[in-house]
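Bench log. Compound arrived from synthesis this morning; before running ITC I wanted a structural hypothesis for how fe (ii) ion sits in the protein. Inputs:
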Amino acid sequence: MARFLHLSDLHVVAEGTTSSGVLDTRSVLSSTIDHIIEMLPGLSPIDAVLVSGDISDDGTQCSYEFARVQLDRLGLPIFSVPGNHDKRSIFREVFCDFMTLPKSGSINWEAEIAGTQVIGLDTLVEGSGSGTVDENGLALLTSTLAHSNKSPTVVLMHHPPFLTGIKFMDAIGLTNIGAMTAALATENRSLIVLAGHVHGVHHCQLSGHPVVTAPSICSAFALNRQPDAFVGFFESPTGFAVLDTGAGYHWSAVPTSYFGGPHAF
Ligand SMILES: [Fe+2]
């Protein structure tokens, strides 16, 4: 069994700037890492950190370098895929030392971590908010599933392969959910898909396999399915998650902060 921290959507900006003109995501990340380090004794042992994309908000080199310094404070291997805000070239340079990657093109990878097969799928379409698992990603997914043993498997991607009903996010969702559905249709191994992008916890199934999205490290999108719902974000609830890949999968969302306690029963 492996145990992972699942982090998503850090949206780090360049020094002296903010995300959407209001959110100091550098400070948010730094304080969240402080919080996770405090919690680690209660969560350990952790084998690796899985980050489901949108590490940077503005694609600047310094935003990636800051994110890397902060994540390295956890003292754990970091495995990640890019999100729609990421810049592939800088991401590849700063964040991919734990995975064996193609020298160019989409950043798809597979790795065995503590007996768990992990497959990272790059859904970034540069210049677009929407995402697609390209031919290379689909080929890696199907060939890895065909040729590896039947160990527990995690598929890590940014855009979730389902729609939440949040209109402004569904408009920039995964464009080939059908291809992902087909790729897993006959797969009977124990497999879970981890995603991000929607800045909140949503569960679904894909060809019978569980899919879950992590809370964002920095902000939250409200679940409001009305067509005229406000298009924007909240500063909380934020958080991360812990995944055990033992018998079945145990994925637990962990809020960044607990309020009003602790009180004895
Ligand atoms: Fe995001």
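What the model suggests: The mean pLDDT is 96. The pocket of fe (ii) ion is lined by residues 9, 11, 54, 83, 197, 199 (CB under 6 Å).
ITC booked for Thursday regardless.
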